[in-house]
């Protein structure tokens, strides 16, 4: 298995030399500066690849192995195969990536909002901070800040009262902060930042689109792009919904094993793969993470390894340390190692320690939310230790 690291580019607080010092060898990156929907060019991809792989004298080499992500425009999620221009632009970006020899592309199909949290610096018992999704705070935003039409029907009377109590106790600065976190698009997001009026307009555009319709749109997208990926030796990996359940009344269709099985049955090409994210899928108690890894082993080309801890209400959670929380990481890695041993070196699974606590000196620095250096390095070291114990020396 190959040790990956998400790098947000030359303006990111974490440098390529920082990455080298963590022991990671494979870079996961994207061209975040390019507007969603505009086709990437080979020269733009090549420039980033050169930045990563042209190793200075005396430095260990890095390889750009995964593009995370080429964003899928909103029109594709709403219209499926009818969004021909947007799909053609996405294929052009895929072709540029393939021409530069990058073999894996990660993407997601979450409508309107991408990965969602209510707090970015929730203090845990060690004094470090973690990202958190608090159901009551989320409901307070949905019901009383966004004031989403029909939202009250999706919450029990008890939930509505608790949300009101939370909202009324929030100072204006706290309301502004949760609004910023939810609407402004978190790092690596593949959706556009929104204002509250813009948010409502986006939600209205999805009226009449249920899970079946959204799944059909994803299938139509995959039917259009998978032949191009297959012809160029590129593996497409769908990232799970985060959190893996409906938000804001919107359907989500990559939350369970059955969701993935439906997509693989509809588009059976081996180019149609999975980004196996233990943190996202692990939020659901009914997702058996080792069983999912075993079931879809041949489709897993890229893995996000992190753990989350479900809280008392069963709907709130926070990012835990990588070997804590609700994910049995040893059991998960046993399944991934068993699959990886069947593969040629060029087909090895790329994994990265995903997210991480803000800790030690990173508490005094500007960091990318969810992606501090030290917390992720701790996670990578712990994962590397498991791999060594399993007799699978990571590359």
Structure explained in plain terms:
This protein has one domain: Divalent-metal-dependent TIM barrel enzymes (TIM Barrel), CATH 3.20.20. The chain is globular and about 60 Å long. A hairpin with a 5-residue loop joins strand 5 and strand 6 (129-133). The chain has helices at residues 16-22, 42-53, 74-79, 84-99, 135-145, 157-169, 172-183, 196-205, 211-231, 257-266, 278-281, 289-295, 329-340, 373-389; strands at residues 2-6, 26-29, 63-68, 104-107, 119-123, 129-133, 235-238, 272-277, 300-305, 307-310, 317-320, 350-353. Helix 2 (42-53) runs parallel beside helix 4, helix 5 crosses helix 6 and helix 12 (289-295) runs parallel beside helix 13 (329-340). The protein contains 14 helices and twelve strands. The strands form two sheets. It has an eight-stranded parallel beta barrel with strand order 1-2-3-4-7-8-9-12, surrounded by four helices. The protein has a four-stranded antiparallel β-sheet with strand order 5-6-11-10. The chain has 395 residues and is of the alpha/beta class. Catalyzes the dehydration of D-mannonate.
Key features of this structure:
single chain; 395 residues; alpha/beta; TIM Barrel; eight-stranded parallel β-barrel; four-stranded antiparallel beta sheet; 12 strands; 14% strand; globular
Brief summary:
The chain is α/β, with parallel strands linked by helices. Helices cover 40% and strands 14% of the residues.
Task: Reconstruct the topology from this structure.
Elements: E1 2-6, H1 16-22, E2 26-29, H2 42-53, E3 63-68, H3 74-79, H4 84-99, E4 104-107, E5 119-123, E6 129-133, H5 135-145, H6 157-169, H7 172-183, H8 196-205, H9 211-231, E7 235-238, H10 257-266, E8 272-277, H11 278-281, H12 289-295, E9 300-305, E10 307-310, E11 317-320, H13 329-340, E12 350-353, H14 373-389
Parallel strand pairs: 1-2, 1-12, 2-3, 3-4, 4-7, 7-8, 8-9, 9-12
Antiparallel strand pairs: 5-6, 6-11, 10-11
């Amino acid at each position: 298995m190959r040790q990956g690291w998400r790098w947000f580019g030359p303006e990111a607080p974490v440098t390529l030399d920082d990455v080298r010092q963590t022991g990671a060898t494979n870079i996961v990156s994207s061209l975040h500066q390019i507007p969603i929907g505009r086709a990437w060019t080979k020269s733009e991809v090549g420039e980033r690849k050169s930045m990563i792989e042209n190793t200075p004298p005396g430095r260990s080499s890095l390889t750009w192995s995964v593009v995370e992500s080429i964003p899928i425009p909103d029109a594709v999620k709403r219209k499926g195969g009818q969004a021909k221009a947007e799909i053609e632009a996405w294929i052009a970006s895929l072709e540029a990536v393939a021409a530069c020899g990058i073999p894996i592309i990660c993407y997601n199909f979450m409508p309107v909002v991408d990965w969602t949290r209510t707090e970015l610096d929730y203090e845990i018992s060690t004094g470090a901070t973690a990202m958190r999704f608090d159901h009551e705070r989320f409901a307070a935003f949905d019901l009383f800040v966004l004031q989403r039409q029909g939202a009250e029907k999706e919450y029990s009377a008890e939930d509505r009262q608790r949300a009101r109590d939370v909202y009324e106790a929030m100072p204006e600065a706290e309301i502004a902060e949760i609004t910023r976190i939810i609407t402004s698009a978190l790092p690596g997001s593949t959706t556009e930042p929104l204002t509250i009026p813009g948010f409502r307009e986006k939600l209205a555009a999805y009226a009449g689109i249920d899970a079946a319709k959204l799944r059909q749109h994803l299938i139509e997208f995959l039917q259009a792009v998978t032949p191009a990926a297959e012809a160029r030796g590129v593996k497409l990996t769908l990232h799970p919904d985060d959190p893996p359940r409906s938000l804001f009344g919107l359907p989500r269709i990559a939350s369970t094993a059955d969701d993935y099985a439906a997509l693989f049955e509809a588009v059976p090409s081996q180019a149609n793969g999975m980004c196996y994210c233990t943190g996202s899928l692990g939020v659901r108690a009914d997702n058996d993470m080792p069983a999912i890894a075993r079931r879809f082993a041949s489709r897993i080309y890229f893995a996000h390894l992190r753990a989350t801890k479900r809280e008392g209400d069963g709907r709130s959670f926070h990012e835990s340390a990588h070997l804590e929380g609700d994910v049995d990481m040893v059991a998960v890695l046993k399944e991934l190692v068993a699959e990886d041993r069947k593969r040629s070196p060029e087909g090895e699974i790329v994994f990265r320690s995903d997210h991480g606590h803000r800790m030690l000196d990173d508490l005094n620095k500007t960091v990318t939310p969810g992606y501090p250096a030290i917390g992720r390095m701790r996670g990578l070291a712990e994962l590397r230790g498991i791999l060594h114990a399993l007799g699978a020396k990571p590359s």
